Amino acid sequence: MKWRCRYIRLLMALVAMITGELAMAQNIRPMAVAGQFYAASRQELTNDVAQCYKKGEGLLAASRVVVDSKEKVQAVVVPHAGYVFSGSVAASAFAVIPKDATYKHIFLLGPSHHVAFDGASVCDAFDAYATPLGEVPVDTALCKQLIADNRVFIYKPSAHDREHCLEVQLPFLQYRWKELPPIVPIIIGTQEYAKLKEIAAALKPYFNADNLFVISSDFSHYPAYEDALKVDGNSGKALSTGRLDKFLEALQENASLRINNLYTSACGQSAIAVMLMMMSNDSTTHIHHIAYLNSGDSPYGGKDEVVGYHSFCVVRDIESSKEDTKPSEQHENDSLLTAEDKQQLHNVAWNAISPESRHLKVTPTKIFERKLGVFVTLTEHGRLRGCIGHFGEDVALGELTKEMAHAAAFEDPRFTPLREEELDDVQIEISVLTPLKRIHSIDEFQYGKQGIYMRKGWRSGTFLPQVADEVNWTKEEFLGHCAQDKAGIGWDGWKTAELYTYEAIIF
Q1: Pick from 57-71, 103-117, 214-228, 338-352: least confident
Q2: β-strands 153-154, 373-380: how paired?
Q3: What is the pLDDT of residue 370?
Q4: Measured distance CA(318)–CA(315) in Å, rounded
Q5: Among positive and negative, which fits the CA dihedral 341, 451, 71, 315?
Q6: Which residues lie below 8 Å from residue 86, measured CB to CB, with a gap of 6+?
Q7: Which residue has the higher pLDDT, 23 or 476?
Q8: pTM of the prediction?
Q9: Cα 254 to Cα 109, 139, 273, 289, distances in angstroms
Q10: Residues ≥6 apart with Cβ < 8 Å to 500
Q11: Spatial separation of the C-alpha atoms in residues 160 and 39, rounded to whole Å
């Protein structure tokens, strides 16, 4: 009998090895955690997922979260532990998505558990991902485009080879829909705020009703059961607000509690942060908490060291989205700069900052001759290192970008001139501004979407649109701080100043 069991195990290992090699030969990512996090056989996995959905639908019913005909599920936050521990919680989020819902892509975002790296890795190396339920297609063209257009994206094979956080979500999707749209697998390897902001900015154009975002994250790691309830309660309550500042405050509060054996409050906090950044100032999206359990609630888990599991869904009000979109104005701004325009302007900025060590090729495009405003912002390890801009009424954009980049590095009076040894730690953010538009009432000012420029006599000041993402101010407080801190005309000075709005194309 022992000999027979050993033979069966050896045969299963051989089959898995051959299957993996065959998948690689066919340009398909082989399963990395089948037989560990979920069952390796098709029938057993089908039965297990069905049971997860049965329990998950019970959790969903208890939450009373319902998506009506005027809404569409934009994103879900789901755990990625073994199915015996977190499967029902994951299924509770997927179950909120109607079976007849259609999407063009499914973006999968999760943390790197095996390697740390700067930025995010987009897997463009495989045409499909394999699971026991079949193959899930990858939109390799879109993956390659994201990498080509954004410095924050790379492809790092070691980030995907053994990673489970995205793979374990696929059987839930396959079970619910007969045919899946192509996926875009993204592993995030950093917690640096500036990098996460870049990732969010790059993905924001896809954060719409056409696409589904699956955010993969477990929550507290390894505290005792009762401590997990407290920690995960804090994190879950904060995330339910849909506000990044509240979520980050909860993580800091949990860390300050010094709870024994608390390794992290959320292993996928970077992916969650990116989602919250994309939701920022979008009044058509709303987040709902669905379920919470931890591994101590499973018959297979103990109470001394547990892992927490939350599920959430983000829904988008489709009707409001249509009303809020002004096609002529919105499309004009979206198409103002091409990917090539952005890359060439980025090269101009780098060459201006470090002419001796950077020799990036610059091929001027048509946009270089437009007289548009531009602000160049430098950050170092997520902290501001310089920011200078001009509204560009009399200077072509190409030349203005060069001047503002040099000024941000060496002439911002708030900072010492940038040193050569700092260059490897500096990131550049360029904000190309649309023409100024005079307003006569703050009701015309779309806070969060537009920047504000105010002028009174010879004094003036501005706040870029993205400042709203970094503060927790009302519209009036935003104007007050701009008047007082930037224009120097006093807190209420904006009330008698000339006010102008503009939008920014940020990259």
Answers
A1: 338-352
A2: unpaired
A3: 85
A4: 9
A5: positive
A6: 79, 80, 218, 293, 295, 307, 309
A7: 476
A8: 0.64
A9: 24, 38, 17, 19
A10: 436, 437, 438, 439, 452, 453, 454, 455
A11: 20
